Amino acid sequence: MVVPAQEAGEAYGPGGVTERVRQLVDQICTADHAYYVLDAPILSDADYDALMRELKALEAQHPDLILPNSPTQRVPGEPVSDFVKVSHLEPLLSLGNVTSEEEVRRFDQRVTALLGQSPSYHCEPKFDGLSIALVYRDGRLSVAATRGDGFTGENVTANVRTIRSIPLVLNGDAPPVLQIRGEVIMERAAFLALNEALVAAGEAPKANPRNAAAGSLRQLDARITASRPLRFFAYHAYSPSGLPVATQTELMDLLRQWGLPVSLHDRFAPDVDAALAYCREMADIRHTYPFDTDGVVIKVDSLAAQTELGTVGREPRWAVAFKYPPEEAYTILKNITVQVGRTGVLTPVGELEPVTVGGVLVSRATLHNAREIARKDLRIGDTVVIRRAGEVIPEVVTAVTERRTGDERIWEMPTTCPACGAPVRQIEGEVAIRCSNSPQRCPAQLAQGIEHFASRDCLNIEGLGPAVIEQLLANQLIRSPLDLYTLTKEQLLPLPRFGERSAEKLLANIANSRQADLARVIDALGIPQVGHETAQLLAGAFGSLDRLANASEDELSSLEGIGPSVSASISRFFADPDNQALVKGLRELGMGGPAETAQATPTDGKLQGLSFVITGTLSQPRRYYEELIEKAGGRVADAVSSKINYLIYGEAAGSKLAKAHKLGIPVLNEAGFFELIGQPAPGLAREDRRA
């Protein structure tokens, strides 16, 4: 029931202003929940606005009465300069994908074999949005973060507070510390309206609702986020103290009780046949929903069974994403241009008559290589079939030859690099056509090579993205990755978007990259066919950049995991005079030295040759312990067997702990693990270290 706003000058009743503020907050929050979550408005716009005006007036007169869940507290503040990194309480895992009913049945067979019985499932629409984690402490929204790499995301709390479907304070009794995972989306109608407004303002339209939602949430100015019609759906929860429910179905009901918006289209499935029936039904009706969904998430319903099944890599064994077939469309292949990558590979790109495929406006698509173009007999001017492969990457499937008019033109790969004019070459045994110039002499290779050099998996130089690299190259401030280490604040300040703070921060990040370990330095070089795993292998085998650079092709190919093609690629790379100068420069900077002189931790080598299994809930994400073990020379396995040396366990350890006891494998709690590696563990009580 709506309590009327007070007339000007009229005194408030029993409880006075304090009670009136509480009434107003309750009424407006209830109205917000009904409008944004339940899609069932209970107030007219006029009544809502009148209540909001009265609340703002009372809070302005009595700021000490402002409640934490007051709707006025969603108002965004001043823009921020950057997003702060946040570690998730529980990793935000990614799902494995399946595309056929047969694969779903194989998933069910694997789960049944591991559990020893057939499970029931919970099925939900797979939202096509941006995954985020909300942390509530004592029922109040504390931190909101993007998924990031699954373990660490970006703090977007100020932006998330502007999304009215997300409660600032939970209803009822929630655990003292609670992480909610869900999806931020933008409905199709809101997306079209946003694009119309962007075009009217002379700005580029967004490609699809997902990109629009992600871009809106990652605005440095929360006022822009507040102006965008974003919605949120919750689908997972984690608490260090445990959850008061036993199944995913019960968890969805609990999320609703806490006031969180959840899908109205989820369903309990007693067996795999019911889950597949739901997938078939969703295939027909999903387009009637106001938001995009590209599949169904099938989860084992029992939370205890989810814990028992655990994860493989970064994917849970207890859930899978059933993806619907990608959508296709017809369009015209207007032209074929060529891009030059960081390793000099020339990649043909199809320039298309813009067409919407699966909700995405597509105007370009990779054509992979000249052999693929010839195999598909693609010609400039052809009508072609476009598919969003995996509903993400646009792909040219085939030419519609019956629509040819005779005006189509056969395309040929250029004989010179379009970026630097050097002749192209094809290495024997490779399909790729490459620029013959070194990365330092080809502007396209140089720009992408420096971007790779600074990337997260390599030297992790935050703030050195493509736009900044382009500015540095355009102003001739860098001609090689080595030039990054001679940049000065005076050189950066005249550039657009650089101030004192941002310039100092970038220079500090560049300086810190000199401490990178050998594997990262090798990866950063951008050697063709050498990724992060191969770089780690090379770092372990040679111990320094000098030894690697002087290794013979025979020495390289003798390593397990290094074949003739990779060893030849490495030898060619280090035979190039420009690359030799790059290695020399890095060594002069103190980078890529012998492993024994690198920044070592006290745990190095302590676990050499030992195998571990990690189970249960610990105080840090699983990857944290994996990195400590690997750094100390050990390895982490997924399953308990007689070959395992130790099992590390936390809360709700489950069947793995029982199996370790049965096999007589030593088990360690968290404190015992840190004692084993000789590293302090702040916050852990000195208790019996070994179970």
Summing up helix and strand content along with how strands pair, one would put the structural category as: alpha+beta
**DSSP strand (E) fraction?**
15-25%
Question: What is the terminal-to-terminal distance?
Answer: 58 Å
- Helix segment count? 24
Considering the protein shown, what is the CATH homologous superfamily of the largest domain?
DNA ligase/mRNA capping enzyme
The number of distinct structural domains comes to 6
What does the largest sheet look like? 5 strands, mixed
User: What name does the CATH topology of the largest domain carry?
Assistant: D-amino Acid Aminotransferase, Chain A, domain 1
Tell me the helix content: 25-40%
Strand order of the largest sheet: 2-13-10-3-9
Poorly predicted residue ranges: 5-10, 596-603, 682-691
The CATH class of the largest domain turns out to be: Alpha Beta
Mean pLDDT: 84
Number of strands: 26
Provide the gyration radius in Å: 29 Å
Q: What is the global morphology? A: globular
Mind telling me which CATH architecture of the largest domain this is?
Answer: 2-Layer Sandwich
